[in-house]
Automatic annotation (TrEMBL):
Binding-site residues, Mg(2+): D126, E152, D180
Tagged with keyword Ribonucleoprotein: no
Names of required cofactors: a divalent metal cation
GO molecular function, one term: O-succinylbenzoate synthase activity
Species, as recorded: Propionimicrobium lymphophilum ACS-093-V-SCH5
Protein name (record): o-succinylbenzoate synthase
Catalytic residue list: K96, K204
Keyword Magnesium: yes
Domain spans labelled Mandelate racemase/muconate lactonizing enzyme C-terminal: 78-171
PANTHER family from the UniProt entry: O-SUCCINYLBENZOATE SYNTHASE (PTHR48073:SF2), O-SUCCINYLBENZOATE SYNTHASE-RELATED (PTHR48073)
Highest taxon of the lineage: Bacteria
Matches recorded under SMART domains: MR_MLE
Family statement drawn from the similarity comment of this UniProt entry: Belongs to the mandelate racemase/muconate lactonizing enzyme family. MenC type 1 subfamily.
Pfam families: Enolase_like_N, MR_MLE_C
Length: 320
């Protein structure tokens, strides 16, 4: 088994980072990705590693060969957002909000996206749990004017998501609520269902421990609609998410796995980037030696990742 540590710059600051790092594992020609964000502790990172190991051992059969995807819009100017949508070929756009930009700036970006995608397209917003309940109500009243497919993780806690759904209904605001962090970072991901806190569930393969876990959760969280989303991975990791989306019994909503274009490069010659708003399932992308070398992490960072990988391997063994 060979381990390669990558470091790839992003086109725009995304999720507070401008370089994406992680590990690619080559197990006798079968590739998988492990790339938990650097701020996560070993307990969370070990869960991601289970998702990586699932990539190396799974043998499930897909029921479809392609899925529709959204274009993800970072916190960019309205003009840039408009251009990204129009050149993406996607009929769905997810707009990052509630980060470093103000609500006014968020609203301008969302309006530009709606204009670009047209009245028949779908617009989503993702706040990454940044709003309080009161802030979410204020923001969604403004952002909802363009017509939103849903608001992803507007508040941090499951309890606030449940309260928000009730307040939105009481106010007559037709904005469905989606849960992401409340599932993938929760001790009890089914609490979202217990409190009826979401209309849509966003499931991420690597963070949740693999496609088998994602398929199980999709069934347990039914009848809520499912969106398979990425964790900002290379084409190797994205392929695992794409395969999981193709394995779901019911077709998911447009998936959030069209994120490789956010990188300035990739470890494979033909990156998994959507065409005409779709990703088509094929063989697992194989990194090339040249690109692995081009995007190899500096030695100190490579050592940090390999040490982290060893700790997480040991943690999994202890929990077995």
């Amino acid at each position: 088994m060979r381990v390669h540590v990558f470091s790839i710059p992003l086109r725009n600051t995304f999720r507070g980072i401008n370089v994406r790092e992680g590990v690619l594992i080559d197990a006798d020609g079968k590739w998988a990705e492990w790339s938990p964000f650097v701020e996560y502790d070993d307990e969370i990172a070990a869960r991601w590693l289970r998702g990586t190991l699932d990539q190396l051992t799974e043998n499930r059969t897909p029921v479809r060969d392609r899925v529709s995807v959204n274009v993800t819009i970072p916190e960019v100017s309205p003009d840039t957002a408009y251009e990204l949508v129009t050149t993406s070929g996607c009929k769905t756009a997810k707009v990052k909000v509630a980060g470093s930009s103000s609500l006014t700036e968020d609203a301008e970006r969302v309006r530009a996206v709606r204009q670009a995608i047209g009245p028949q397209g779908y617009v989503r917003v993702d706040a990454n749990g940044s709003w309080s309940l009161e802030e979410a109500l204020e923001a969604l009243e403004i952002l909802g004017e363009v017509g939103l497919e849903y608001a992803e993780q507007p508040c941090a806690s499951v309890e606030d998501l449940a309260r928000l759904r009730k307040e939105l209904a009481k106010s007559g605001l037709a904005v469905p609520v989606a849960a992401d962090e409340s599932i993938r970072r929760a001790e009890d991901p089914l609490r979202v269902a217990a409190l009826d806190a979401a209309d849509v569930v966003v499931l991420k393969v690597q963070p949740l421990g693999g496609a088998a876990k994602v398929l199980e959760l999709a069934e347990q969280l039914a009848p809520r609609k499912v969106v398979i989303s990425s964790a900002l991975e290379t084409s190797v990791g994205i392929h695992a998410s794409l395969k999981a989306a193709c394995e779901l019994p019911d077709a998911p909503l447009a998936c959030g796995i069209n994120t490789v274009w956010l990188f300035t490069g990739d470890v494979v010659r033909n990156p998994l980037i959507a065409k005409d708003g779709e990703l088509v399932l094929g063989e697992t992308p194989t990194p090339t030696d040249e690109l692995l070398e081009e995007f190899a992490a500096p030695k100190p960072r490579a050592r940090w990742w390999k040490d982290r990988l060893q700790r997480c391997r040991e943690r999994i063994k202890e929990q077995a």
